[in-house]
Amino acid sequence: MLKFHRHLKRIMAAMAAAALCSSAYAGFYTDGATLKDGNGNPFVMRGVNVPHAWFGSQTSQSLADISATGANSVRVVLSSGSRWSRTSASDVQSIIDTCKANNLIAVLEVHDTTGYGEQAGAQTLSGAVDYWLDIASVLQGEEDYVIINIGNEPFGNGASASEWVNGHANAINRLRSAGLTHTLMVDAPNWGQDWQGLMRANAPAVLSADVDNNVVFSVHMYQVYDTANKVQSYINGFVSDGLPLVVGEFAADHFAEDVAEGAILQTAQNAGVGYLGWSWSGNSSDLASLDIVENFNPSNLTSWGQTLINGANGIAATSATASVYSGGNSNNGGNNNGGNASCGTQDGNPICCDVNSDPDGDGWGWENNQSCVVTNSSNNNPACGTQDGTPICCDANSDPDGDGWGWENEQSCVAVSTGDNSSSGGSCDWHGSIYPVCQNTSSGWGWENDQSCISQMTCDSQ
């Protein structure tokens, strides 16, 4: 009955809108902790942040390259003109069109608000809303393809709960009053990391301030989230409270401090929570390890890029295209593909990726809204362990060519050397992650045999 009333409200709202203009808007909406697309299908973000405001000439090709990884969404950095060159309405329209051409959902964010209250020159949320209203004409009608992230990390440290709640409530009310019915994304305080728990405790107040009840909350997980327990506690807390959450930014480290990226990937996958890795390329030298590819070249995945895209619970294994692009059903090469599950099939049934999906030990589990069979090879949590989220090969013979990678249980696995930091059998233990040693690259990182590799010189330099 509740679901019927919700759809009745949406139908009546659409009829009212149709009376005022030539087309009624539908688009993304939230249903408890679940984000759903315009067809009513759950949509879980698996994507990448794109630094458009600083590298605009790279954006079009980057979007195509990101789509090729299997990503279903991108979060695009825009500028209102307060701190960087203003992203024009025509530029935003071009971004949306390119995303649609590449089957990507566009999360658009104003970056000028970053760290307001601590960062000199940072813009207020109200200023960000002014920008959204100024370019509203290119946003309206794109509700199926665009989510508006009102302002990036709009409060630094020291903001009160009432400042965060009221600032967003006022912003949401202004956007709704202007006729923008998109799903709105709200960033946490504390530079997005919410280490004080203000968003965690006060998200319901912001959600209730939206007449459309259509808000997704975004936490940025960096060094504050350096253990699996911290990651799980935060993500699972939102889900258990029925609140929609996305990890809007994260990486493997941040200013040389560790991040529990493997736990983020696995917890997000288990909980059905979206994530968007920071960032495709172009980070400053002190944050170069946050680049997913080197110099915008998709053939040169970094260590972080390898984990995000090709690791267990990464984009390639778990992403599903929004059904607005796929004719009404969410499907892609990821875990949402029923019998074609990334962890394999047995007698036509998907194999569970996580042995913990079978708590009663009866041989059957439940993942991705369907039954799965638990086997000895159910190994997103494999018996032989994981390395940076990627399964470790149990059998040394799985790597006959000695390149550091093998194939077991219908997926790639890493062949771990038992030696020191130098390569053994063609692999290198690079600060805890295993990579094949390049045969044709003398220094730095390379790309050989369709994968990233590390030179012997760089491996030995640790």
From TrEMBL:
<protein>
    <submittedName>
        <fullName>Beta-1,4-mannanase</fullName>
    </submittedName>
</protein>
<feature type="domain" description="CBM10">
    <location>
        <begin position="383"/>
        <end position="416"/>
    </location>
</feature>
<dbReference type="InterPro" id="IPR009031">
    <property type="entry name" value="CBM10"/>
</dbReference>
<dbReference type="Pfam" id="PF00150">
    <property type="entry name" value="Cellulase"/>
</dbReference>
<feature type="domain" description="CBM10">
    <location>
        <begin position="342"/>
        <end position="375"/>
    </location>
</feature>
<dbReference type="InterPro" id="IPR002883">
    <property type="entry name" value="CBM10/Dockerin_dom"/>
</dbReference>
<feature type="signal peptide">
    <location>
        <begin position="1"/>
        <end position="26"/>
    </location>
</feature>
<dbReference type="GO" id="GO:0004553">
    <property type="term" value="F:hydrolase activity, hydrolyzing O-glycosyl compounds"/>
</dbReference>
<dbReference type="InterPro" id="IPR036601">
    <property type="entry name" value="CBM10_sf"/>
</dbReference>
<dbReference type="GO" id="GO:0009251">
    <property type="term" value="P:glucan catabolic process"/>
</dbReference>
<keyword id="KW-0378">Hydrolase</keyword>
<comment type="similarity">
    <text>Belongs to the glycosyl hydrolase 5 (cellulase A) family.</text>
</comment>
<dbReference type="GO" id="GO:0030248">
    <property type="term" value="F:cellulose binding"/>
</dbReference>
<dbReference type="InterPro" id="IPR001547">
    <property type="entry name" value="Glyco_hydro_5"/>
</dbReference>
<dbReference type="InterPro" id="IPR018087">
    <property type="entry name" value="Glyco_hydro_5_CS"/>
</dbReference>
<dbReference type="Pfam" id="PF02013">
    <property type="entry name" value="CBM_10"/>
</dbReference>
<feature type="domain" description="CBM10">
    <location>
        <begin position="427"/>
        <end position="456"/>
    </location>
</feature>
<dbReference type="InterPro" id="IPR017853">
    <property type="entry name" value="GH"/>
</dbReference>
<keyword id="KW-0326">Glycosidase</keyword>
<keyword id="KW-0732">Signal</keyword>
